[in-house]
Each structure stands twice: as C-alpha cells, then as structure tokens.
Amino acid sequence: MASTSRRRSRIVAFRTLFEADLSGHPLEGILVRQLQESGLTPDARAFTSALVAGVTSHQGEIDQVIRRHAPAFPLEDMAAVDRNVLRLAIYEVLFDTEPAPLRSAINEAVEIAKGYGSESSGRFVNGVLGAVALDAAVRHETDDSVADDDVDGD
C-alpha cells in the first residue's frame, strides 16, 4: 500500500477514534460511516479497520504508556486530538504485529496533530512520542543484554 494511502488510512482511523471518544457513540457505527465516506481502497479500508481495532483492544495499555510519558498531562484533561493521535501512534509502534517504522509513525502523528489540533499539538505529540521511542529503545537494548547473558550462560 502506498504511503499516501497509509496516511489517509491513519487519518480516517484517527477521526473514528476521536469522534467515538468525544461523542460516546458506538465505535463500530462511526467506523462504518467513516469508511463509507473515505473513498479508500479495500486494502486501505482493511488497514484502517485494523488500526481502530488494535487501538481499541490495547487502549488500557496504551493509556498507561501515555500516562507514564506525559505525567504532567492527565489523560482525562488532555486535548482529545492529542490523546487520540498518541493512542494511534503508540499502537502502531509498540503493539501492532507489523510495527510502523518509528520515524514515519512519529512524523505521521505530528502531521495529524498539526492538522487537527491546537498550535502546540504537534510539539506535544512529538515530545511524548520521542520519550516513548527512547524508552522502547532502552528496553530493547536491555532485553538484548539479558538475552546475551542467557546465551553466555551468565
């Protein structure tokens, strides 16, 4: 799938999550309507649906990651745009079975935040995702060290 289709899919997924978050209406109906109005290809629709389902199924864990990396900004008080952009990007980077490249996921999230959020949304999202990425890299190095120790018999 071309990067333009993936970007449009992410935007539709974000809009679906954002609307459900604000309205409290059932996610499924919102997703169906968003997909019908999107003009996305069948592959892009499937990608969008997978993103929404993934964020939904991992939302508790994702929200914990956000809380850990943005402790000064309670999730409940955070702008809905920022909260849902972060949920989508964190799902793609940490929980998706086919994770998005880190740099591209952060760039896409920042662009969506700039397009839909406040003047400071892009910087905020970039800062939180940068901290998430750094933490993930440190954990990955630690996991590799532990695995190396196990192989060496230490």
What does this structure look like?
With 154 residues, this protein is mainly α. It has a single domain, classed as N-utilizing Substance Protein B Homolog, Chain A (Orthogonal Bundle). 80% of the residues lie in helices and 0% in strands. The longest helix is centred in the C-terminal third of the chain and has 32 residues. The model has no long low-confidence stretch (mean pLDDT 90).
Share in helix: over 70%
**How much of the sequence is in beta strands?**
under 5%
Count the domains: 1
Assembly annotation: single chain
* Terminal CA distance: 45 Å
Low-confidence stretches: none
Q: How would you briefly describe this protein structure?
A:
This protein has 154 residues and is an all-alpha fold. The protein is built from 7 helices and no strands.
